[in-house]
Backbone:
């Protein structure tokens, strides 16, 4: 009832693990696959090994989580083994990749064997990467185009909400040949320790995830669905089955779950039957609820 | 939770390289759980509580060196406690501590002793001066000592005090990973609980930086049963701060 085909990939359900969560070791990705995710996305992988920002790199705030990991990763040269291990979980494995230029993205994509690639042009706190390029539609189009030319696997582009108009970057990704867009990455944010006035994150500022950003993400997905021909994958603050349904009604073909995995690693297998029961009761299919908010 | 500000009330030199920092706030002490200690402007590191209002720290790197600069009335941040603690068992108990690994085991010893358990502690360190919390272990049961340089007790690693036929209801172990791996090779894994050290970033089970294969040290651990660890890369590989797999 929940299975679907997304950019050519067969998914048992539309619930995926989001990038940056439990995505560094093949063993942790495999575990999430075995916990019922329809697909898993790796930690963002770059050209060279990178240790990321100093701690604190994540802190829980009233309404979600702030993080500034700083793209720590072992480099694509040390990552194929992890993807191969993750694939033992028997769901599609999507490699999230990042770079500073189009050539870097395509070099990494060419070197890795994954079921699809998610281009991270939206990390809000790594200088020279992510949002620094993801807010410029021309760059987004160039990078997407370069990767599409380099490989045959599906290419998804993960968008930042830290722009005036997310539709223009979504359209840029589509012009570049993207097979799907993923929205949204974290929302720029900051927390300060009032005992000392010291910013808490090692990087001083970071990105907000969790419940607080769900309405922001829903609106972004809604807007992207209106203008794009390619599928939108929704992400941002999903913590139960109702949230997942809401994203699909906004126009997401599938969704990704991130922060909520910390509290409940079984969230995927918890959501699936609840969604099925809800849809059965309403006599709706996934296709029925897909984009429903645009029709009423 | 955001970090709680704690003010140092007393600093105790335990050994030439290990200090205990007592502070003005008490936390629920479930032995084995850890807190994230934020030295502002420097780093945030995982640390076991050695008392309900103290951490015991060995000077090993930039963050712990910065901590050693702090004195009474200075402050740092703490969030937690996080993770799973030791599962408390009764009967005949063995504790195996290596170096600063004695920090979470001393409060555990006191807790299980109050339940009436019979405790034997194997305590190891590089030298006699580096033996941590010997009085705390002596006061709750039998203590056997090993030092790398032979300055006290058995000359060699603490594992040399361990015999294959050890027949305890439960063994608790914390220390350098190489030592814990050796312990695990000798004892009955299903009756052994080990507390792991890994590079921890988020501390709350989200980022996956501390994973041992699929296990999150910060959330599923840091205490694991030996038979769980036997099936993993524990004792062979760990991840560095980039996530690269490196030999232990």
Residues:
């Amino acid at each position: 009832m929940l299975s679907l085909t997304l950019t050519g990939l067969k998914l048992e359900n539309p619930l995926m693990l989001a990038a940056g969560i439990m995505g560094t070791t093949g063993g942790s990705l495999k575990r999430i696959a075995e916990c019922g995710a329809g697909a898993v996305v790796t930690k963002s992988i770059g050209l060279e090994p990178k240790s990321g920002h100093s701690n604190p790199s994540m802190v829980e705030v009233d309404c979600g989580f702030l993080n500034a990991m700083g793209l720590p990763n072992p480099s694509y040269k040390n990552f194929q083994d992890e993807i191969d291990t993750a694939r033992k979980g028997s769901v599609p494995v999507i490699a999230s990749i990042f770079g500073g230029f189009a050539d870097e993205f395509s070099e990494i994509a060419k070197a890795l064997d994954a079921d699809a690639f998610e281009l991270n042009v939206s990390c809000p706190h790594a200088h020279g990467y992510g949002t620094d390029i993801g807010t410029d539609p021309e760059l987004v189009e160039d990078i997407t185009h370069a990767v599409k030319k380099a490989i045959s696997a599906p290419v998804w582009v993960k968008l930042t909400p830290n722009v005036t108009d997310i539709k223009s970057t979504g359209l840029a990704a589509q012009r570049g040949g993207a097979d799907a867009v993923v929205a949204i990455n974290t929302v720029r944010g900051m927390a300060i320790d009032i005992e000392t006035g010291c910013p808490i994150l090692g990087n001083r500022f970071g990105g907000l995830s969790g419940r607080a950003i769900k309405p922001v993400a829903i609106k972004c997905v809604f807007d992207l669905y209106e203008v794009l021909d390619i599928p939108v994958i929704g992400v941002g603050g999903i913590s139960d089955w109702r949230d997942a349904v809401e994203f699909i009604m906004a126009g997401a073909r599938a969704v990704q779950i991130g922060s909520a995995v910390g509290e409940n690693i079984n969230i995927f297998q918890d959501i699936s039957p609840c969604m099925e029961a809800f849809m059965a009761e309403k006599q709706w299919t996934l296709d029925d609820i897909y984009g429903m908010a645009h029709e009423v | 939770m955001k970090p709680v500000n704690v003010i140092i009330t007393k600093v105790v030199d335990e050994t030439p390289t290990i200090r205990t920092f007592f502070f003005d706030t008490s936390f629920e002490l479930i032995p084995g759980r850890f807190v994230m200690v934020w030295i502002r402007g420097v780093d945030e590191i995982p640390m076991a509580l050695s008392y309900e209002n103290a951490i015991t720290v060995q000077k090993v790197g930039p963050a712990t060196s910065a901590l050693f600069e702090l004195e009474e009335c200075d402050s740092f941040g703490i969030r937690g406690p996080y993770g799973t603690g030791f599962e408390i068992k009764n009967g005949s108990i063995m504790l195996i501590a290596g170096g600063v690994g004695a920090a979470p085991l001393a409060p555990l010893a006191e807790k299980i002793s109050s339940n009436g358990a019979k405790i034997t502690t194997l305590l190891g360190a590089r030298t006699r001066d580096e033996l941590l919390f010997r009085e705390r272990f002596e006061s709750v049961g039998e203590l056997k000592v090993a030092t790398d340089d032979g300055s006290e007790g058995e000359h060699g690693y603490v594992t040399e005090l361990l015999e294959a036929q050890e027949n305890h209801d439960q063994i608790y172990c914390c220390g350098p990973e190489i030592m814990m791996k050796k312990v695990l090779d000798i004892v009955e894994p299903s009756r052994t609980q080990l507390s792991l050290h890994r590079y921890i970033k988020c501390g709350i089970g989200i980022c996956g930086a501390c994973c041992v294969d699929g296990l999150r040290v910060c959330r599923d651990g840091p205490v694991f049963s030996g038979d769980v660890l036997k099936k993993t890369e524990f004792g062979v590989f760990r991840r560095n701060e980039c996530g690269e797999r490196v030999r232990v």
